[in-house]
Amino acid sequence: MKLIGWAIALAAAGLTPAAAQAPAAAPSDTKAAAAAPAAAAPAPIVYGSVGHQIPTPGIGMPVPGAIGIEEQVTPLGKRAAHFHNFWLMWIISLISAFVLALLLWTIFRYRRGANPTPSRNSHNTFIEVVWTLVPVLILVGIAIPSIGLLRAQYSPPPADVTVKITGHQWYWSYDYPDNGVSFDSYILKEKDDPTRTKDQRYRTDLDGPPLLAADERMVIPAGKVVKFLITADDVIHSFAVPAFWTKLDANPGQINETWVKVDRPGVYFGQCSELCGARHGFMPINVEVVTPAQFEQWVASKGGKMPGAKPAAAPAAAPADAAAATPQPAQAGTVTPPATNQAATAQN
Ligand SMILES: [Cu+2]
């Protein structure tokens, strides 16, 4: 019993036999950590490297004064935008013009001065059949391509990459379950933002437009089918990237699924599109589309692996692999200042 009592006492003090050996190692770790801040100061961002590609003005972002839909970069988006711009807009414009012309004609032709004795007809079978059938035919004509689009949206082809997207108050987190990569993404504050801490990275035009630039971007490969699994861990958010034709609610306890295939590399911006609280307007979405080779490089820089590479990488060899991957030219600059996310969490 005494032994058990001692064991309990040691455990309570955090000095279980295993833990008891730790203090010997801990001080050296602490020293290393103490020495680290000077040596491992936030690495400078290398713009143009993977994860920090420079956005193209006007592409994948809103443009002041512009109207209409953003240029689409996914097959579904192109199809939907074409349907909207060249069918729906024409149909509703013609119907509106036709109804306006009928109204004007009625107002002038049948005014009291021009038509003192009004007709007393209350039925006209032919015209009643026409004004019932024509709208039905128009609606059927619109419904057929609409249903085809919906079907395409909810019938994803087999995914090459899967990204789980979680909305939080007020930031996004991205997990690549097949690659072992996970990170959070916060808005980049302006340089003169009084809530920005001294060491917190601030936005520049190379990151993206104000209120739309994030410290970490979701990176996906071009020309590949990417499945998005969208959820939330607190309240309802909405994952929206206009250039992808993507807007899907992120509901707690539920996973909504959609997919994209982006052929053109670039940086694409979006925002949470569901009122989710005080800082709803400050949780931007940044998606960087890179070549498949750059994507592999990015996954390695995040400490992950490509699914096919799993059997080759034994656990013991993992650090060596990571080290081998590091010296690649673009890697050095892709390290994000470690303080950023934590500081941002405190700020948010
Ligand atoms: Cu939100």
Q: Could you explain the architecture of this structure?
A:
This protein is α+β, with helices and mostly antiparallel strands and 348 residues long. It has 7 helices and 10 strands. The strands form 2 sheets. A 5-stranded mixed sheet has the order 3-2-1-5-8, with no helix packed on it. It has a 5-stranded mixed sheet with strand order 4-10-9-6-7. Helix 3 (75-109) packs antiparallel against helix 4 (125-154). The protein starts with a helix and ends with a helix. The model is unreliable at 1-39 and 312-348 (pLDDT under 50). The structure holds copper (II) ion. Copper (II) ion (CU) binds next to loops.
Question: How is the topology of this model organized?
Answer:
Elements: H1 2-12, H2 17-39, H3 75-109, H4 125-154, E1 161-168, E2 171-176, E3 181-185, E4 218-221, E5 226-232, E6 237-241, E7 246-250, E8 256-260, E9 266-272, E10 284-290, H5 292-301, H6 318-325, H7 339-347
Parallel strand pairs: 1-5, 4-10
Antiparallel strand pairs: 1-2, 2-3, 5-8, 6-7, 6-9, 9-10
Helix pairs in contact: 3-4
